[in-house]
């Protein structure tokens, strides 16, 4: 049963099965789970509720396909990725409609995500033939030393719902470029986008078993543990919460897997009094309210120097008041729903906690039940303090909390007072300060005079309890490769006949 089906140009992109070993399959148990449109609350459709046995089948398929894939040239893998990229761009409208349907983000944002997601395939199609080794000068006369990079093997990929396309392509792109086969666990909230991408992989001619997608909702923990405990899977890449990342790391320890984790954030966003006001306000809008605040690099704590605090608060509030909240397909809508009612409850709890401790709501601060159970007003709160929940927890919603500060040293100390360190932002015209503060922030990524830092060419990842490893960029492919050193001895003899 399906409702409110978007008008897809290619209806074969909408699947209710998942893709393993080149075939569309159901769960062996026959069980399914339901997926709902977060804007309307209506049923989108069902997907297979896969379990340990299904996941093991996917892992076996990936293992069986690995020997042949390792024999392919990097140029061949490059061509597959390029074809997959081309197919994504040809079907960009339909992919965007699927993202909006199951994730809720406005259609303009969804189109932006499709372009961003496809660019990872384009980028890694270009990186695949450039995974170079080195020639090393040895310490021992007569020896020759060189290195070669090899695919690590079967990779298990676990992705979140907030970017249904980009989080999959950001992991599969480098894995395939390196020569790894993959088992990807798509998010239970947004599995249809991943299934559409699998259909395009099939059309791109990628061999059976190279790309496998496992779907589940209730059995997510079981599927995750099957991947992390498998002796066949040599690498796990996970994007999600720090709590779950710690659990997956423990589960992976028995088999000593290579890991890359992109975990929770609590991004500081600092506006110094010498900043360009319009640039800073627009940066805050882009960073804080993108996808209704549901990104891991969203500004979570906005620190504004006291000299411009009132004027910044006024300008930001005016911008937020111009937003239009509603269903993602509706004309003029700038911000959609949150993913589910639990997300709304967390956002509202943070707002109420701030109010109780003296925070002043400048705009928003309310649920929007007339629109649906998953909608919350974009909110600006001033007079925030470090004791409030929003200061030390990731809100993951459309709430901008403004903290005043006096000095550079004070704000850097507050910004770094967090267990996590994914992204940080600051705005200033002082060049020396730009270098000084960028180096002082304890985060993996810094945006200076910009609120948007995601780029396939740039390494994405954090420090502290935000995880380790990098995605995208020239470094991303290395997460799926091992370095083999070869020493050749006995090569120091004189030329024969001399």
Written description of the protein model:
There is one protein chain. With 498 residues, this protein is α/β, with parallel strands linked by helices. It is built from 14 helices and 22 strands. The strands form six sheets. The protein has a seven-stranded mixed sheet, sandwiched between helices. A six-stranded mixed sheet has the order 9-8-7-10-11-21, sandwiched between helices. Strands 5-6-22 form a three-stranded antiparallel sheet, with no helix packed on it. α3 (92-103) packs across α4 (107-127), α3 (92-103) runs antiparallel to α6 and α9 (277-289) crosses α10. The chain is globular and about 85 Å long.
Map the helices and strands.
Layout: E1 18-20, E2 23-25, E3 32-36, E4 43-48, H1 52-71, H2 74-90, H3 92-103, H4 107-127, E5 135-136, E6 144-151, E7 154-158, H5 166-178, E8 182-185, H6 191-203, E9 211-214, H7 220-229, E10 233-239, H8 242-252, E11 258-262, E12 267-271, H9 277-289, E13 299-305, H10 309-321, H11 341-356, E14 360-363, E15 379-382, H12 389-392, E16 399-405, H13 408-416, E17 420-421, E18 423-427, H14 431-440, E19 445-448, E20 463-464, E21 467-468, E22 481-488
Parallel strand pairs: 7-8, 7-10, 8-9, 10-11, 12-13, 12-18, 13-16, 15-16, 18-19
Antiparallel strand pairs: 1-2, 3-4, 5-6, 6-22, 11-21, 14-15, 17-20
Keywords:
succinate-semialdehyde dehydrogenase (NAD+) activity; alpha/beta; Ald_DH_CS_GLU; Ald_DH_C; 6-stranded mixed β-sheet; Succinate-semialdehyde dehydrogenase; 7-stranded mixed β-sheet; 498 residues; 22 strands
